[in-house]
Predict the 3D structure of the following.
Amino acid sequence: MVPRTVSVVNMKGGVGKSTTVACLAEALSSEGQLRVLVIDLDPQSNVSMMLAGPDRWAELRNSARTIDEYFNQYVYGGQPRFFREFIASQVSDIAGDPPLDLLISTPEFRYIERHALEKWVSQGFDIRQLNTRFGRLTQSAIENVGDSYDLVLFDCPPGISMFAEAAIELSEFIIIPTIPDYVSRLGIFAFRKRAIRSMEQRRFTEDRIWTLITKYEESNTLHQSEAALLKDQFNVFDTVVPQAETIARAAEWSDARRTLDQKYGEAANVVRRLAAEFRERVGLI
Ligand SMILES: Nc1ncnc2c1ncn2[C@@H]1O[C@H](COP(=O)(O)OP(=O)(O)O)[C@@H](O)[C@H]1O
Ligand SMILES: [Mg+2]
């Protein structure tokens, strides 16, 4: 059984990428009983913090179980460890030990790409070959753990990174969270071209690229009109994620385990709807 692979991406920051990954991962693993692996590709480590909490994150970092260390071993050499050894099992503060695993990122991750570039370029590799190399490493990592998961979610950094490129290249589906305003809509056009190319190369059609409206303010007339435009122009989730204090608060780790309702408060049902629609879209029913 091969897991479904999904990248959550947007060139813009602050649009709710990491929040979307955390919500989906928690709802699908706790109530949906799917075995989920989250891979944090962002040096800001937001989803790592959300799902592991600061103490476990520090422990994992101290024991070199991070995405930087996984790639590091290929940049600096040495005896490679299996991908599965880097993964933290059963993360999240949701009660009931949901089958939700995580590969954390750390701020140092931002240097790996630079080091790899310097080293491999000095050995005569060009950028395309580097891309291919990162892509292969990521692909073989997923194959290494494929049997253990139903779903792999990549949380991508804003902007361009080779790791995000690799994730996009191997993902079967792409979710673009976006705030419904003019500037954000412009950003989607640029990014979608890249995503469509990747889908076409694999003989997929572009209906695997989905926009998710986030931070929606019901009484904001700009949000209303922009959301309507997004729905006209793109393949958009029916579920709209509202701007909600409870969603922002859910990002903070709680040492006491909590249910989905306790964690997401009045937004819990939106999180459930999002998870249900996601399942249908990726075919994990
Ligand atoms: N639906 C929402 N309602 C309120 N706050 C949100 C919502 N989604 C995200 N946030 C908050 O907005 C900020 C950016 O969200 P985040 O998921 O980190 O975005 P990104 O990963 O795209 O940079 C965070 O502080 C997060 O808690
Ligand atoms: Mg993020």
Remarks:
- The chain has one domain: 4-282.
